């Protein structure tokens, strides 16, 4: 018998988690559970798929139909589930490295095709599990294990990437903004088509330690002090927005058909 709302969605025998104390992954996982509980979806018809990385361990802790797959390949596996079981809600969980680097191609093509997936990106701006290497979302100038004098690369803006690739629901939040995160994940779960929620998260163990934010609360403070709502950001200049995190819903298109619906309508005419 499960104890309460939180534990009914968890495999308690898998706890404690492998995550460092204070890691944002736990906040995102709890946001997902709250959002899922409010969504009215059926856990028996829900699949959660992940690749490799700290955040990808989420599938081990969640008591749904789960798949913990290969590095960068979560979206490929999830696409297979979504197309063979259109009655399922299919969720992908992964980090910035897993989804925008190794799995970057799968990500842009899922968005382009509008596959019916809810993709939750835990963006901690670094590779955590593999030891603090820079990822495509590490900001320029910030230190990582592979950029000890500062990152010389430009960072991906995950929201812009998802928008330009064609995702039909796109939102961003941070682990500091819990209520917003729950709201956006719930909207994404109820959306039909590719829904992307980027949640800025803290890896204080690597990103924070390398960049003067060693304690979890320092990174939470950073998110609190540097986040701007989209509506306010639209009235600000590019210079004023430098180093800021803009949160909000950037697209919500309920009219565009998802891939499966379009495919069935086109190819089942002779049946
Ligand atoms: Fe979290 Fe970073 Fe620790 Fe991984 S290494 S569990 S991302 S704090």
Structural overview:
The protein is of the alpha/beta class. The protein has a single domain, classed as Thiamin diphosphate (ThDP)-binding fold, Pyr/PP domains (Rossmann fold, 3-Layer(aba) Sandwich). It has eleven helices and eight strands. It has an eight-stranded mixed sheet, with helices on both faces. Helix 4 crosses helix 5. The radius of gyration is 18 Å and the shape is globular. It starts with 23 loop residues before the first helix and ends with a helix. Bound molecules: iron/sulfur cluster. The site of iron/sulfur cluster has 12 residues, from helix 8.
Quick structural gist:
This is 2-oxoglutarate ferredoxin oxidoreductase, beta subunit. The chain has helices at residues 24-39, 58-61, 74-84, 96-102, 104-113, 158-165, 178-190, 204-210, 216-226, 230-233, 259-267; strands at residues 46-50, 65-68, 89-95, 118-123, 169-174, 195-200, 227-229, 245-252. It has 271 residues and is of the alpha/beta class.
Average pLDDT confidence is 96
Q: What is the general shape?
A: globular
The top-level CATH class is Alpha Beta
Strand arrangement in the largest pleated sheet: 2-1-3-4-6-5-8-7
CATH architecture: 3-Layer(aba) Sandwich
| Hetero groups | iron/sulfur cluster
Helix content class: 25-40%
What is the end-to-end distance? Answer: 46 Å
User: Biggest β-sheet, characterized?
Assistant: 8 strands, mixed
Provide the CATH superfamily. Thiamin diphosphate (ThDP)-binding fold, Pyr/PP domains
Structural class: alpha/beta
Low-confidence stretches: none
Return the domain count. 1
